[in-house]
């Protein structure tokens, strides 16, 4: 029968998962089948995806990508690896979305931000103290390459305008809006809508403070527009931005992007 071992097709006569392990990598102490760890033997079935890992072993480069996505649901990686996602702003929302999508294995990320890393960013943004003063796009690219070197990253240290948004994000399958200011959000959405008609946008608004995480939701607001947040909690005096709720919103955005890339509606219904 034909199965996949560490993402490579293998023809085998092994009847069980552990028999396959013993045949191909007997020192493997982690066995993952179709995205789930196996702790007891089971029959091997046609098309099964099996990953064999030895704890502490640094795998060869040709195997590493397969091992990075070993816990994915089968069929997801092949689809997201072909995708391109744009992220407008890599601050609290955008940096967390970028990290999630890199771990997911999205094939190409287009990042745009004009700002630098400064100390007040570190309470919620995916940067480090030794990156203070670096352009956020440069620092984010460094961090993403350490997470997943198989993701192509295109960084633009630039202030986004109505003129350059379609040029920068024209090849993106989905755009993530991760700005702070309402006027900049409006500019981005309108210029992308006009320059890249029909392409979906996942935006966010309403995640300040420390209210209940369950009030942050994903809503469909148009044919190709999705909005994440609670709809009310704007940042202001006495209402700061902190890692937990910003992270909740960012991961709503990343999950919405994933659903769109695999053909599902980001809000919850099948597309």
Automatic annotation (TrEMBL):
Domain ThiS-like ubiquitin: 1-56
Statement: the UniProt record of this protein carries the keyword Transferase: yes
Transmembrane segments: none
Keywords linked to the UniProt accession: Nucleotidyltransferase, Transferase
Gene3D superfamilies: NAD(P)-binding Rossmann-like Domain
Cross-referenced SUPFAM superfamilies: Activating enzymes of the ubiquitin-like proteins
Listed CDD domains: E1_ThiF_like
PANTHER family: THIF PROTEIN (PTHR43267:SF3), TRNA THREONYLCARBAMOYLADENOSINE DEHYDRATASE (PTHR43267)
Protein name: Sulfur carrier protein ThiS adenylyltransferase
Species of provenance: Geothermobacter ehrlichii
């Amino acid at each position: 029968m034909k199965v996949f071992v560490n993402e490579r097709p293998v023809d085998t006569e092994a009847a069980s998962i552990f028999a396959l392990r013993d045949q191909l990598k007997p020192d493997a102490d982690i066995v993952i089948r179709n995205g789930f760890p196996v702790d007891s033997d089971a029959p091997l079935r046609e098309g099964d995806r099996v990953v064999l890992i030895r704890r502490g072993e640094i795998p060869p480069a040709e195997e590493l990508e397969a091992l990075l996505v070993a816990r994915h649901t089968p069929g997801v990686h092949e689809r997201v690896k072909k995708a391109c996602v744009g992220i407008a702003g890599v601050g609290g929302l955008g940096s967390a979305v970028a990290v999630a999508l890199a771990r997911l294995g999205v094939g190409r990320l287009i990042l745009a931000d004009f700002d630098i890393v400064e100390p007040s960013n570190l309470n919620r943004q995916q940067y480090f103290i030794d990156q203070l003063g670096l352009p956020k796009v440069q620092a984010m690219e460094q961090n993403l390459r350490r997470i997943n070197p198989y993701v192509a990253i295109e960084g633009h240290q630039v202030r986004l305008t109505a003129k350059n948004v379609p040029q920068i994000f024209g090849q993106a399958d989905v755009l993530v809006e991760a700005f702070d200011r309402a006027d900049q959000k409006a500019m981005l959405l309108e210029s992308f809508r006009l320059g890249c008609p029909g392409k979906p946008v996942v935006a966010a608004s309403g995640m300040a403070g420390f209210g209940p995480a369950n009030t942050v939701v994903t809503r469909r607001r148009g044919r190709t527009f999705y909005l994440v947040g609670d709809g009310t909690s704007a940042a202001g005096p006495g209402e700061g931005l902190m890692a937990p709720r910003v992270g909740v919103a960012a991961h709503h955005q990343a999950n919405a992007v994933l659903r769109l890339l695999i053909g599902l509606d980001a809000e919850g219904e099948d597309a």
